[in-house]
Design brief:
The structure is a homodimer of 324-residue chains. Chain A is of the alpha/beta class and 324 residues long. Chain A has two domains: 3-48 and 147-320, Rossmann fold; 50-141, Rossmann fold, CATH 3.40.50.1100. Chain A has 14 helices and ten strands. In chain A, the strands form two sheets. A six-stranded mixed beta sheet of chain A has the order 1-2-10-7-8-9, with helices on both faces. Chains A and B meet through helix 6, helix 12 and helix 14 of A and helix 6, helix 12 and helix 14 of B.
């Protein structure tokens, strides 16, 4: 994995992915006690950064292989990203999703042309199901994070952060990234290593799913005890990957762990101050910026708001915490 | 008023206002039966397009005049735009707001450094109050819409629409704009006359506040019977202005009138499909695109989502209409 792969992915994504804005508000700066810049990937196609990795992977397949279709397993955002990338390429997609994924993500994935197969997180192994269907139909598996091409696609966020912050004269920053399997986190870290080497990526995780933080401390891949139990469905991954972990280990600063309540508050602040909709997992990094100031060191914090696919009920819960 | 004034405003706004994204979703295209592009001015500084006009006006004052401070009257978005523009210039601002403006807008205006004076919409004349305070303190009145410099500032949205749509190969479109006093509508119409002459601006108004539509039909400035009674607080203006009306008359297509329910639905669709927060008045144009397809003629409709400063309670009301 190197910067050339990320630049190549950026070339394939040009005119296809949105260059999302780097938003800010004096009100958020005041809460965080420093300058806060929010890379708003919730405004990406399909409502999350996952479209980047999906497009990067589907666009690189040779045409005959691509024509047979692709398959993915995902709690929802990768699902939509791959489904939309496949639809835009005119090829079929099969998406394997947990039964307890937000209904909105399941509905959207179907509406983007995918065949959706539901499984039980506690009793079934999605990797097994995916491998079996891939073989039967000649589908190409698009992994959610532990794949160099997908990592390169997500890494294009890092290229844009370096460019957009650079235009503002910012070279040093803590860059907070919601971390599940580490695809986006490692991709951004690789991009910034090359283009903004004074920035430090910090993985952000929900309580009970802090495997990345623990893995960085212990020096080996650690696992989470549970697979459910946070509202941050997008980043409740069992562990980081074999490809992502060494990159995280080489390039990232310490992980930051946030509570569900801190994520709900960050969602509400994004509503009030930035006018963007973010989902619980997508708010983990903003939650870290707003509620864990003592763990940050730079004068500027850049936060990735990674997705906005949240059911209305959960969003109402976030807004009810506001006292306006 | 001409395009040179808008270009000059764009020069002063460069690096100060955000170039807001033109968002889209296949789900919205399906509802509208045509391509829908959403100019997301809710992502502008202070959460609405009004920052453009505020900055355009404050930045053009001579330094001695500016140092004495500025004054504005507004239901909230112009208030915040002027307050923030003044704060960024390091000069004082006084903002005269109706007592029934959303609490969020009042609080934000104060937090942006303004002195807020509240008045009663039904019994007091805000113009009178404004003129008196301007005189007493040597403040310069920044009008909300009927001022060539403010119109030019809002018109920079039109320059960006022409450029962003042009990059997508789009020359013809209905351009739907929420219309109160007509500052933004006339500014965009002037910009498009010069830069995208095949586009037609259509003012969008709430039921009971359709003075622009009626004025275009009768050929003279018509007034609304009431000053309250819609959830679209941002565009409940008594009439269009003496400067804005001739521009609207020369350049705009027929007005479109939307119901409060259609605006709430548009807010919910923007939440679901675009991940942007829009307020009721800011949703009037999107409501027209989604619910008044039969009144549109072009294959592409460009919608201005003009602001996102909505109280959480009203937003929850919009989301409760969703069946997900």
């Amino acid at each position: 994995m190197n910067i050339d792969m990320i630049d190549a992915a950026a070339g394939r994504l040009a005119g296809k992915a949105r260059k999302t804005p780097l938003l800010s508000s004096p009100f958020l700066d005041e809460i965080a006690g420093r300058r806060v810049l929010v890379k708003s990937e919730c405004l990406q196609h399909t409502g999350s950064f996952k479209f980047r990795g999906g497009w990067a992977a589907v666009s690189l397949l040779d045409p005959d292989t691509r024509a047979k279709g692709v398959i993915a397993f995902s709690s929802g955002n990768h699902a939509q990203g791959v489904a939309y990338a496949a639809q835009q390429h005119g090829v079929p997609s099969v998406i394997i999703m947990p039964k307890d994924a937000p209904q909105l993500k399941i509905d959207n994935t179907r509406a983007l042309g995918a065949e959706v197969v539901l499984y039980d997180r506690e009793t079934e192994d999605r990797r097994e199901i995916g491998a079996k269907m891939s073989e039967e139909r000649g589908l190409t598996l698009i992994k959610p994070f532990d794949d160099p091409v997908v990592i390169a696609g997500q890494g294009t966020i890092g290229l844009e952060i370096a460019e957009q912050a650079g235009e503002m004269g910012i070279e040093e920053a803590d860059v907070l990234v919601p971390c599940g399997g580490g695809g986006m986190t490692s991709g951004i870290a690789l991009a910034l290593e090359a283009r903004a080497p004074k920035m430090t990526v910090r993985p952000c995780e929900p309580e009970g799913f802090d495997d990345a933080k623990r893995s960085l401390l212990s020096g080996k891949i650690e696992y989470n005890a549970h697979t459910t139990g946070s509202i941050c469905d997008a980043i409740m991954t069992p562990s980081v990957g074999d490809i992502t972990f060494p990159i995280l280990q080489r390039l990232c600063g310490a992980g930051i762990v946030v509570s569900d309540g801190e994520c709900l508050n960050a969602m509400a602040q994004a509503f009030l101050r930035l006018k963007i909709v973010i989902e619980p997992g997508g708010a983990a990094a903003l939650a870290a910026a707003l509620s864990h100031a003592s763990e940050l060191t730079s004068e500027t914090v850049i936060v990735v708001a990674s997705g906005g696919n949240v059911d209305p009920d959960m969003y109402v819960r976030a807004l009810q915490g506001l006292s306006v």
